[in-house]
Amino acid sequence: MSNTLNVVGGILFEPGHENHLRQTDFFIENGIIKSFSKVNGIETVDVNGAFVSAGWIDSHVHCFPGESMISIHPDKIGVIKGVTTVIDAGTSGANTVDIFQKEIIDKSHTKVKILLNVSSDGLITLNELANKDAISYEKITSVLKRNKNIVGLKARISSSVLGDMGIEQLILAKEVSEKCQLPLVVHIGNAPPEISDVLDVLGKDDVITHMYHSKVNGLFEKDGTPKGATKRAIERGVKFDVGHGMASFSFHVAKRAIENGVKPDTISTDIYEKNIVTPVGSLGITMNKLIAAGLSLEEVIQCVTSHVSDLYDLEDRGRIQTGLRGDLTIFNVSEEATIGIDSDGSKINLEKNVKPTMTCIGGKLYSIENGVV
Ligand SMILES: [Zn+2]
Fold first, then answer.
1. Per-residue pLDDT averaged across 207-215, rounded?
2. From what superkingdom does this record's organism come (predicted)?
3. Is the domain of 75 the same as that of 47?
């Protein structure tokens, strides 16, 4: 028989699915989920009562080593961490994305999608929008024609990135994203520009990443309630992403924001070589921090599966359905308390922890953390 696999004995974890929390078997053929009953006589893996969700998608990482200031290989943050797809958030731009595709994406086990940096050079430097000629509509449209892994555009809009340039770079990026009909993902940080000016440019299905940073120019008032511009953005349908990173996830800010009803649409790590050990760890550890901040297990799983696929039109993944990719994350939930750390160095008591044990990408199984890739 062709390339086939049964995954049996797992408990489906997909909120809203008719079989959510019921024992479910999977038959995967040629990378696609074919049915929910096993087929005799083929390779079969018994996951012994573990949860099985759609493969986790980390929607903000940096995985273009060699051509950028901040990166890590996708297989170090993906397949061995329970993550089946990563979305690189602007490490490459129009001038460098072809090398990224050829040297990294085509050779990785972990699936990689791209948010193309609006700056042609991507993150070769970290002030990529300080030059008035940094954004080229012609170069971006030309790349879009040949690279179908691009699912959105990325612009880092904070003072160190922009140099003497200002909000006009964001306005230009927004014009380009509208013409290309792609979501614009915006990194926020220190002013200028003021956060209210940044938010007011964005519309439905654009994304703010680093939503829970603790810098002055954040989305929330001192009392933890959302600023006026934040509320207006939510009403317009702007989406919000965690983007943990080295300096962008404050547990205190997150907890109070969630108490005030501002939850993330997507949970992501902003992971790369320098923040993987501490404070970020992995997507799973980041999800556990959000559970500690007040989200339910159902919410955190949706923030790394269906919410991501809906936002970036990843129609072949992010849900459990026949005909979709055979991408699964197999995980347990432990009540054993551990300690996490946020970007401000504060300790977080993690009392409920998701722990991935296996990753299935297109019907191929990988175990976690033992290097079998
Ligand atoms: Zn980033």
1. 97
2. Bacteria
3. no
Q: Decide the pairing of beta strands 207-209 and 239-241.
A: parallel
Could you tell me the CA-to-CA distances from 193 to 116, 200, 304 in Å, in that order?
22, 11, 30
Q: How many Å apart are CA 253 and CA 284, to the nearest integer?
A: 20
pLDDT tens for each residue of 284-336: 999 999 999 999 999 999 999 999 999 999 999 999 999 999 999 999 999 99
Query: Mean pLDDT for the chain?
Result: 96
* Alpha helices, H only, 147-194: 159-162, 168-180
∠ Cα 96 102 104 (to 5°)? 90
C-alpha 335 – ligand 1 centre gap (Å): 31
d(CA 2, CA 85): 24
CATH of the domain at 65: 3.20.20.140
Alpha-carbon Rg for the chain in angstroms: 20
**Residue 307 shares a structural domain with residue 331:** no
48 C-alpha to ligand 1 centroid (Å)? 37
**Omega within 30 of 0 (cis) for the link into 192:** yes
Let me know: does 11 contact 50? Beta carbons within 8 Å. Answer: yes
Number of domains the chain contains = 2
Find the 129 Cα to ligand 1 centroid distance in Å: 15
Q: Give the Cα separation of 363 and 353 in Å (integer).
A: 26
Q: Is residue 82 located within the same domain as residue 224?
A: yes
292 located within any domain: yes
What is the spatial distance between Cα 26 and Cα 360, in angstroms, rounded to a whole number? 11
Q: Which residue carries 């995985």 as its tokens?
A: 63
CA of 307 to the centre of ligand 1 (A): 19
∠ CA 210-294-115, rounded to 5°:
25
